[in-house]
Amino acid sequence: MTHEPPDDEYSIHWIRDVVDKVAERNVEEYRISSGKSVSGSIHLGFMRELVICDVIMRELRERGLKSCTLFIVDDFDPLRSLPGSSSLSLDEWAGIPYSDVPDEFGCCQSYGEHHANELIETFPEFGVDPEVIWHHKLYETPEMKQAVRTCLLNTDTIREILIEYVARDFNDEQQKEYIESIRSWYPATVVCPDCGRLQSGAKGEIVPNRVTNYDAEKDMVSFNCPACGHANTLPLDSIRVKLSWRVDWPAKWHVLDVTCEPAGKDHAVKGGSYDSGLEISRRVFGWEGPVKVPFEWVRIGGRDMSSSEGIVFIPKRWSAIAPPELYRFIMLKTDLNRAINIMPEKVPDMTDEFERLERTYYGIDAESAIDDELARLLYPLCLSGAVPEEFTPNIPFKFAIVMSQLESVIGSDMVMSRSEYAIQRQYSLESVSAESRRNIRRRLDRALKWVQEFGSNRDRVDVPDLVPSSIIETLTELDIRFLQGFLEKLRAEEMDDETLQSAVFGIARELGLKEKRAFVVLYRILISRKSGPRLAPFINMLGRDWVIRRITDALELVG
RNA sequence: GGGCUCGUGGCGCAGACAGGUAGCGCAGCAGGCUUUUAACCUGAUGGCCGCGGGUUCAAAUCCCGCCGAGCCCGCCA
Prior knowledge:
Layout: H1 14-23, E1 29-37, H2 46-62, E2 66-74, H3 90-93, H4 111-120, H5 123-126, E3 131-134, H6 135-138, H7 142-153, H8 155-166, H9 172-182, E4 188-190, E5 199-200, E6 207-208, E7 211-215, E8 220-224, E9 231-235, E10 241-243, H10 248-256, E11 260-264, H11 265-268, H12 273-283, E12 291-295, E13 298-300, E14 303-304, H13 315-321, H14 324-333, E15 340-342, H15 347-361, H16 372-382, H17 397-404, H18 407-410, H19 412-427, H20 434-454, H21 469-472, H22 477-492, H23 497-511, H24 515-527, H25 535-542, H26 544-558
Parallel strand pairs: 1-2, 2-3, 11-12, 13-15
Antiparallel strand pairs: 4-10, 5-6, 7-8, 8-9, 13-14
Helix pairs in contact: 1-2, 7-10, 8-12, 10-12, 14-16, 15-16, 17-20, 22-23, 22-26, 23-24, 23-25
The chain binds one RNA strand through helix 9, strand 6, helix 11, helix 15 and helix 17.
């Protein structure tokens, strides 16, 4: 039996499914949120969450719905550890909110702001534009104060929920212990007015400065700071209070009226903080809470990215070596529950793949392995800005790898004009647009950085100023005659890649020189190696005049 | 101990929710008008679909068990 594939039962892409679900909320404005603790540099993986938020927003707008994105900088969290590179003292700053810790680099208001800004600066390139909300400032608003009050008033309910969600997989003894430990627990901590700490101790031995009592009638909060010993009972309005983990999140959802928030797998697991947060939304704040969109993590080169341990690979570093649109493409094409392992050394190949999508979108490739409808959906979502009316050609990344390394040899003007010429030939263009020229420039810059950081030895091209005498000495009588013949040919006429490649073979054969040897000789003269980039295009990149001079110089050295 | 996700040619992945001859990219291999070189084009090769069992005329796909990898599950975030 055969199946007619039902058209609308299963969607072509996860974005459609997610947006369908979000749109069901039927609200006036769809608010898509994300948040990040600023314990250090925010790595490239977090950008996945921002991109997910962004495409949900874009698709909602596409459907004529009002939508925005939010990015909450969790800078009111207490500092627990410092990266090894930091000059700050952990003893001095542990337990203090990131917004109160100074910026050791001196350029921002605080430790938290510094790391947040490092990320925020890359937003335009990556095509995201969320409203930035500073957690510590949010806590100063009357709405958030009221939410804190609501949580304190509903402490019993919150305790019940936590026992239900956190302790459900415990054995009897663990359960008893947990219930006991939470008996006099309040869902909030206090910034000590004396020492400025939310908690004492660093990672592993933390004791929070927890609210020890809340007098609802007088709206008074008691605490007993474990860091400095200061104990007091003060009006809620007069002190800085922060809600606990698992409670803070639903309070923010409520105050900011969040419709949807994606969550990494650590938070999104069944019974995890997201689920308990939804339960708190229902039973404490009286609404259903946001639409949960779980997603897997991003790894780089097979290793986890983590601010505290592992490798630091920040978005800025990505945009220095690869197009941000490519990052968005990788995020969008991969299913949400798949971990993404980014391999920087594959950037050239991945860029090619992305450009296949681009050409499919513009209908330039006659046949394409990429589905038309998928290209129509995905390509615009990959771009950081509006989709240009017409295809804007660029040089292939792999061409740029070689070309960009020649700047120091032939100068950047030559590199640009030869790159433009390559595009003109490839797409049969009369002229190259200003936009294309900007693209070329960007690509050359990225290709050069890429090859320096991630290129293999084969990718690296190093043209020495002079041909070393050690190489001159290896030239035989026949080699020299070949070089003379090739020089003549070069002087005689401008040749395209194919003609030039043939000329090498032709001249070598005429003289009875082994073809392979001819190539070795030329590569040695040019780059002191016995092989290199495909020869004729490489010579044309360097330019006829330059190569003529090079060979002439070499022949002079022979004497 | 409990839970979630993943396991498909050398590498990275699609196909699994609707069971019916196993696809793509990269690498490798062979070719591109008597011209091997690493922008480009063409072609062929390469897979007990983690293992075992079950359902079915038919299983990569559905069900059960096992193995392996990753992650989450006290406080704190």
